Amino acid sequence: MGQPVDVDGFWKDGYTIVKGVYSPEEIAAFREQCRAGGGAKGGDLLARPGLRSVLTDGAMIEIARKILGKDEIYYAGDSAFTINATGRGWHKDNADRTDGNAPDWRSRYTQLRFGIYLQDHTKHTGGLNLRKGSHEILSLKEGENIYVPFEPGDIGVWSMRITHSGNGQLIRFPRRKTTDPDDKDTKIPSWRMAPKDGDRMAIFAALGLDDEHAARYTDYLKTRKYAVDLWRGGPYSAEALEEARRAGLKVRDVPSEVINDPNAGKNADYAPIPY
């Protein structure tokens, strides 16, 4: 990869952007593979041959190693792609979102969310909002609201504790202003809103250290219906697991854990897990 990673900025602000990792041709290929489902009917990225390289080409792994300061990077099946997703609203992705005394908040958080936006979001709407510095704050209402200026080819990485929202609104006038994703009553005239850059496509993956935060997050995710449905729809092949191993990923085969587990995936909505 070779691109610089602002490690200090990540730990201070809760996110960073690594510029120009992928070429226009590679981004076009990702878009084509997203439309084709990555060559599979279900499963996370590791179960989809056409999109598996996002995890195994080394780019995300190198970024994770630099940020986390360790060589062994862990993957437990949390990845997906989206096309024209519509969800908006501030939230966090970690297991302990409502209790500041819970394990997620007792030590430096080591689970990272990666995002590759396959169209421009410097001048176009539909990108990512983050609350700067909110990875250290339980409240969803604190932290400066940032509309992240992704260009095709960039990789974004943010703490799964950070407050964020998809499908951000970018306003042309005044320049580069964004709305609050939770303010559903905001009416912006269409002439003030930046246009979309075609179909909105994005690829997401979670990597981190194999530690107590990883174990807790995976235990939480195994309670969520959407995640378990995804895993049950796409088991890992031996080829996929070997490709991940060669790339330097330590993989937890969560699809095999949930396939016959009647207790997995019972929660449609967020619910905390005990500690």
From TrEMBL:
Keywords: Dioxygenase, Oxidoreductase. This is Phytanoyl-CoA dioxygenase family protein. It comes from Metallococcus carri. It comes from the Bacteria. One of its GO terms (molecular function) is dioxygenase activity.
